[in-house]
Amino acid sequence: REKRLTLPPSEITLL
Amino acid sequence: PGLLEPTSTLVRVAKSASTLGIAIEGGANTRQPLPRIVTIQRGGSAHNCGQLKVGQVILEVNGVSMRGREHRDAARLIAEAFKTKERDHVDFLVTDFN
Question: Predicted ipTM?
């Protein structure tokens, strides 16, 4: 069974 | 909720250049749940202000909490705060504690 231990990385936005 | 965290700092960034000049990562449902400053561009308003630093986490923008906002929503809110002509500055509540 798959364990989700980490959340996905985020994109980066230049402001 | 709504209370200032003890390590937080309010930074007022004057709109001294045509761009804000920060890059952010993070947002709700990512590894970095609050937006974090990853770049400060030389010559931008944030750089001119001199008080924002790479690595700081943004808690609030103009008193609006970043908590629970996904990346694009947080980015849009910051962009709109910079764009509006209602204010000549943007207030960031930031913390060095991640």
Answer: 0.89
